[in-house]
Amino acid sequence: MDAKKYGGKLLSAELLMIVVALIFLAPFYFLLVNSVKPFGDIMTNSASWPEVFKWDNYTRAWELTKFPQAFLNSLIITAVTVVLTSLISAMGAYRMVRANTRYNRFLFMLFVASMVIPFQSIMIPLLQVVNTLGVNNSMYGLIICYLGLGAPLSLFLFHGFVKSIPLEIEEAARVDGCHPVMVFFRIVLPLLKPMMMTVIILNTLWVWNDYLLPSLILQKPEMRTIPLATFAFFGQYTKQWDLALPALVLGIAPIVAFFLLLQRYIVEGVAAGSVKG
Amino acid sequence: MQDKKLTGWLQQLIFVGPVTVFFLLIMIIPFLLGMYYSFTDWNGVAGTVHWVGFDNFKQIFTNDPDFWNAFWFTLRFTLVGVVLTNAVGFFLAYLLTKKMKTRNVLRTIFFMPNVIGGLLLGFIWQFIFIKGFATVGDLTGWSFFNLPWLGDETTGFWGIVMVFVWQTAGYLMVVYIASLANVSKEVLEAAQIDGASHGQILRSIIVPLIMPAVTVCLFLAISWAFKMFDLNLSLTKGGPYKSTESVALNIYAEAFQNNRYGLGTAKSLLFFVMVAVITLIQVRVTKSKEVEA
User: How many Cβ pairs within 8 Å bridge chains A and B?
Assistant: First the structure.
């Protein structure tokens, strides 16, 4: 019925959704308009459109949070983690499906079971491990942790996907004398692309936004990621909204831009990742 | 033959080796270490670990009201948050699978809060609760907006619930949309021709058919809510007077502020058991309600 014509019922449903969407967006409105107001104007009326645009708020927040440094740290940590996690999980999942031994079945079960473990349940001894390895207070240490923490879900997603890839193509390549490692990189990896997108997106959103783990491992101010820099800044300038708000806008800008650019893939990736999970 | 066996092991090493090493090092070893430490009085400094048997657990069960307050808070929050975010997520998905002209833009808007991390969202909402709500309250005169938001236990609880729903409903919406798209049009049309009402179709056809998505969405929402840390830290820090402290925050404070690592790991172990039991029960129950399409 409603598939055929655009009637009054559908129109009212659409109007209702638009109102709900505006309510969803309201916090962003408050954030943006107040980020350019002088402090006094924020205090007297936080709902109005800015009378004067004090762009200087942004200049000061940019300098005080050392935004370029934090952005770069977040970018390096996220990029390296995401690339390495995707690669090692895809390789592991591929082998576990193709060599279905008792040992691999047990290992896979261990990976799946570990997905129930909350991070807070292992964080205290994890720090001990990080200290023992001597990688405390370094980006390497943080990335190593992410590789282990991100592996179970990524491997699980690839595992389900590899099962759906027909064996014939690989066998043909192998008969032609292609080395198994080359078979993986030349033939299997390109076929994994749809699931690769999902894994990359899920891991990017997680690592980029994570606060707790980096707060435990990175103590030096010059290593701070965006969430760490924002937290430190907010603690120092609480209630100084004319500085805190532009800092927050800067903090969310990269990930929101990333989302708006790749939204189709992100929404599809999320759907694929959850339905399989 | 010998050669083939060797390459088999070499391949196993190359392909499965790296991911297994990191997994064992970062998840399994800390998990096992945590079990050991939970029976000790470790204070974070190496070389001061003494076996204390069940003392930590005795302490938690008999003499730690803060932990149990945090537990009840987390349980209440999980219950309310999970129900509300699933209701909102499903409601959005249900309407957005209809042929609306703006549905793609609307989906983007509803999903957007989800890509921003909990910590920054919490700070943004601190401003909304403190300044934004006050202004809206002055403009509209609605007393709802003039409550002392985040200032007492009740508004703290509902404040966190509100932001949690705002953040997570869009994600669940995407999962529900994917599932609703698979409900066959023929079945729905047949039911309509037979004179079933919208409510009947929803209850008797759509909901049973999308139960796999319900399983997933409940699972996701429960684990987000039960493990909530960032939102809690940035919105209320557990205050006032620890009245809105989640279990995750309580464990964090025990270990890294009180330096009682042994006690902290004991709480971590209990926390793991709670999460495992709750999610296993939920998956069991909703799986049993799934039907073959």
Answer: 275
pLDDT tens digits along B231-255: 999 998 887 888 899 999 999 998 8
What chain A holds in terms of domains, given with CATH numbers, is: 67-212 (1.10.3720.10)
How many Cβ atoms from other residues are within 10 Å of residue A132's Cβ? 11
Mutation pick from B10, B14, B22, B37 vs chain A, by most beta carbons of A within 10 Å, is: B22
* pLDDT confidence of residue A3: 47
Q: What's the token pair of residue A10?
A: 């559908």
The 10s digit of each residue's pLDDT in B251-286 is: 999 888 888 888 999 999 999 999 999 988 998 888
CA distance B205 to chain A (A): 17
Q: Which residues contact B268 (CB under 8 A, 6 or more apart)?
A: A120, A121, A122, A123, A124, B34, B38, B251
Phi, psi of A99 (to 5 degrees): -110, 85
Q: Which of B100, B226, B238 is nearest to B110 (CA)?
A: B100
- Identify the burial level of B70 via C-beta atoms within 10 angstroms of its C-beta, where 0-12 means exposed, 13-18 middle and 19 or more buried: buried
B100 vs A14, A126, A212: nearest CB: A14
| ipTM reported for the complex, 2 dp | 0.89
CA B171 and chain centroid, separation: 12
- pLDDT tens per residue, range A122-163: 999 999 899 999 888 999 999 999 999 999 999 999 999 998
Q: Which domains are assigned to chain B?
A: 65-288 (1.10.3720.10)
